[in-house]
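Inputs:
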Amino acid sequence: MKLGTYIGLVARRVWAKKGILLGSLLGATLVIALLVVVPLYESSVQAVDLRFSVRSAVADDVDMVAFSTMNDYSRTLGTSNRAIVNDAFEQWLVPWYPTIEERSQTREYAVVPTGEGTDTDWFVRAEEWREEVAALEAEDVPEDEWPEPPYPQPPREATQVRFFTTPDLDTRLTVVRGVFPPPLLGAPVPEDGPLPITIGGRVAASTNADVGDRFFLRPFSGLPEVFEYVEVAAIVVPTDPDATIWGVDDPATMVYLDQATFDVWMGQIPLDPGDDLLGQVTDPWNRPLRGFAAPTVTQRWRMSLDVATVTLEDLDEIESRISQFKAQVAKEAGGTIPTNTFLPLLINDFSTRSVVIGGPILAMLALVVGGAIYFLVYTSALTVEREGADLALLKSRGASTWQTVGIHLGQSFFVAAAAALIAPFVARFLVGVTGRIPPLSDLTGGEPLHVTQVSPVTGWLLAGAIITFLAMGVAIVPFARRGVLELRALAARPGTKSVWQRYNLDLFAIALSLVVLFQLSQRGFVNMSGEEATLDPLAIIFPVLLLFSVALILLRVFPMLLRGVGWAMTKSRSLSLALPGWHLSRNPIPYGRLALLVWLTTGLGAFALTYAATLEQSFVDRAAYAAGADVRIVADEAGYFDDPEGAIGSPVLRTDGAPRQSGRRAEVLAIEPESFSEVVTWRSDFGADDPADLFPLLRPDGIAPDVGVELPPGSTQLQVDAVVVPMSLAEEAEAVAVESDYRLLVKVIDAKTRVWTMVSDVDITSDAWRTITIDLTTGENDFPTPPVPPLSLHTMWIERSAVGGLAVDGDSVLMSELVVVTDGESAILDLGEMSPLNDLSIRRNVDGDTALEARYTVLPEGSEEPTEEELLNSPLYRESDVSMWTVPQRSRASTNVPELRRIPDDIFVLLDREAASIASLDVGETSSYSVGSDVMTGTLVGFVDAVPTMTDRRRQGAMVVDLDAISAWTNGAATWSLVGGLSRPEAPQEFWMETDNVDTTVRRITAQLGGEPDELWTIRGVAASFASRPVQVGLVAILFVGAAVAVVLALAGVTGYVLLAVTRRAKEMGVLRALGFGRRGVATTFAVEQLVVVGLGAIIGVLGGIALVVVMLPFLQVGETAEEIVPPILLEIPVGTLAIFSAMLGAMLIVSVVWATRRVSTGKMSEVLREVDR
Amino acid sequence: MPLVIQTENLIKIHKQGNLEVVALQGLDFTMNEGEFISVVGKSGSGKSTLLTILAGFDRPSAGRVTVAEQDLTDIDSKDLTRFYRRDVGFVWQDFTRNLVPYLKARANVELPMLLAGVGSRKRKKRALALLEAVGLRNSAYTEVQTMSGGEQQRLALCVALALGPKLLLADEPTGELDTETSLGIYELLRGLSHQGGLSVLVVTHDVALAQRTDRIVRIADGRIATHGWRGQEELVAVDQRGMVQFSRDMLIEAGIGDNVRVKLTDDGILLQPEDRLE
């Protein structure tokens, strides 16, 4: 009864103070709701992430696949395997994998036409063979001397097929022609005709077979006698061509047997010898065995994951069951049935991601909850202070300390209980509504986020209720033991120094923050032990601790600031400024609590918004870094594409290399500096503020490097007269074979840096001078467009025309001046820049009749000397001087081709600082560089810290060079190019584009490609493909919610404070009114005072929130895979959003202050003074 | 007759910033059981300070105070709570502060009994009896805020008397009431004292009302003022900063104005009016 009376008393007290307790209820509800939001939101966003991850995963990755490849398949083996897999499947994998598909497939069989009516009629041949064998037998010729039977041999380009079966084959196929053959369950008898089979459409087309047609099938590789005579019973198409049962195979290219027939016929089937003509000899047509002996069959099962059934709660069990399934199959099949799924890896990645990305969510919520708890303690303290007189009355009426505490705690319990009832709904609403706001709305389609209920929610709810109860209850502690007079004084006099300062808790908190900061900087944000990622708990509490610590430092400094501002205000002539100024400068300490709340709340909002903006920007940066440009296409020789309309393109060659040829290989991009600067996505921390300041360093004089001897514009042909210095007639007479024809080859680099190999039209022979021509308008390469002028001649060499054998053979070739033909006119080309290399010897100014002399130096015995006239008329005669090229003896195995080449200029290099430092290189220094497989001389011209797309973790460092410059090095050298196909020049395989219209550009560039590129990158595409997007955007969403919560708390807190201040200082205002100060004047005076405090607090809060993000940045540099984020996250201050946030907050605070002061500003004097007493 | 109040050399010094103000200067005072006494004095004379010390709300800086046989000089909080419940009832001047606004009249009266653990039936009976006694029986279930000032102050008396204290202390209980109502309250207090044997000490600055009590105690400058200063020997406190305070009356009687002539003699310090020649 007494308890009931107490409860009644508390209830009446609560009801009587409902107005002021509303603030506490708001705070308590928020604290509990936010605590509940932690698991609820995390699970809900993770559920979205999980669905996103699992659904976007390739089925091949998440499905369970088991297979067994048998070299000697039999029905027994197949059935046993089936039982093992099915049993384990049913025991462990249902219900996540509701379906299982089995298929069996053989290796390739060749289709051998019977050849009836042609020369290769296998039946006729068989018959002839039988007759021959019969004759030999009659002549008692030993059996081992009989000829081999004529096994059906496949034609040169035989159609290859595989047998395919699955237990429900008839439902998988639709018959186009013929009838699906019934199962052949019994063993065949000798009289059985051909095996009826079903064939896919493409098999029918390529073999020209129709229903009723017959042919042989024999293993593509294997014993020739294992063949079967088959008849097409039906031609089919797949019922569902996209069904997973087909895997990567094209159903049109297979032949089918139903499962039962397959099991019988895949294996040897003994028959009665019957009328076997030849006893034990294997007659291809009358064998004692039928079926496909010792077939290689792969039996494969696919258990398809139903992604909808994968839920957060089941993850552990799914993983466990998968491993049990695998273990059981492995054990029972003795390791012959490997099983595989990537789902556990996916789950592991997801878990790591959840931990890594969940960290900031928890930190954020800790921050919000911390702020809300402070708000709660703050409002409770305000409440208790307001209740001072009430408590004094209770005490004077005989209430003990415990009774006083008990009544307050009872009141706190009421509020906490009410909050605990409301909070789950608020939490659900908060979580749900995040689905409606960007950026999460992109994933949910604007629908509320589906709230995934998880069991920890109840615990968090309880914890929240206890925390709020204690937070509110703790406010009574400092007051409970106070005397009646002190309590009465409380309501009228604000406190002085804060408890933090009085006990130096602020210094303690600051010290603790520094320790935590140091610890975190040592340990990092995420702990990785094995594959398990766990979040460092310090990382979660750190932001809260830091914000509080900074706030506490400010608590010491803020009064001084206020004093200064107040003093300045007292200089104003306006009384509405001077009066509050006087008040502020006289006693600034009591404003500390209000300021602290404003800091925490605005700090929270600014932190949330800045963090969200930083995270979003990082996403964009990461996508831009991965894509490199608006559009990047990777395909064979993509760098040679033309710029699509409306876009700027730049070719890029990606390879590896190293300064000083060290073993530490860096990633190398060879670029065209000017266009690359325009297309590359850039950030100022990559090495220069503007790429246009950096990459042109690769061309110090501003022009493209010389890559060879430049040919005049409009050049169409190169011409030269040449002859191989022949053997003497005497040598020739004794030689076995004379083969000395050569051809001339050149490497020409066109304007697109394409390296063309061009070959002379006719061979250089030893019997006569010939004019040989090289057509410059085409080449041996398969570039889609002809050479683009201007052209540069980079290399010339000669090689033997004959395929195989020596490339050059110590011969000499005489050549006249090289003439370049331009629009019908000819000019001699100066090859002075070119040097002979690799033992090529070139003698200039050799007599033109050197070949003639060589021919007639030694004559065969009995031959007559040629007459002068004969010599002059000889096709070997030439009057003018020529050059003589003498090549060493060298085979095609030698890669160094004797060549005439222009030695390329030194290259210029940009290197990352670390690589430069390891190689001890500084700007301006020249060193050797390896690029790809070539070694060249280069000069370091600058540093680059990061280049988009350079993400190859196998490489250490980044190196950028000029594409033109290295083309001359990497592709200029001669190759024995025309033997066994043209050696492929190293071509830029990437094309980077800058465009305003990505879609159009992608369309145009793929049209140019005429097919699918190897890779296509766009910033938007990369951003969308981040697997972590749901959790990340969820985080951004919750940050916005956090900012909203901050606004609510700030409003409620400020309003509560101002209301209390109004009550306390109503007398002062009454006096001002009595002295003739107008209503508006009084309200303005009061409002100005509060707004100065709130305004200064808000400015500090916003700066503090931003600073907190800066401090946290190093801990955010860990990506969703627990690896460092590239490029690093940079602070992004959302100036616009912060301005809107501050303006909204400011406007709302002004309204709340004005609203709170209305009681003293609007009423009559008498009402004001009465208000004081209430 | 046994004493209900006894103070010996009671000193109370309030601190106001750096200044120490002596509110009570060695006050000696006694009160017999069943007496109805009024304490009068000018504003700032120390009468309210005396009352709060007697009620146990505040503690003396020095001296002794015993109320209802309870030594309040060095009392712990547990005994103080018991003292509030058993020995003393208090009525503030501001009648709105005597009552819990969210409780009805009877509940207010019952509140001290509830806190003291009195059973509900007994509480109700006692509350109604008290309300009957002050003529508020019909207002037992009325909201406090709707009651008049006089009614609220009578109700406050009921609350103060709820646990049957030995002593009732009232700090200007009629300060905000009209004369007629004030007289009614004083009659009520007089009845409680004379018929109920309750000791009642009322602080007032209204001499007319004080006349209605059995004894008037005048306080001036923190001590009982029964006659002039001349010829009296007084012990005056010297504060930590060496400052000594004299009562204005004493200074006037000594003819000391704004300045005072100070002389150190073999007997001590001699204070003389400024214009008095050696």
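Residues 273-282 of chain A have pLDDT under 50 and may be disordered. Flag for discussion at group meeting.
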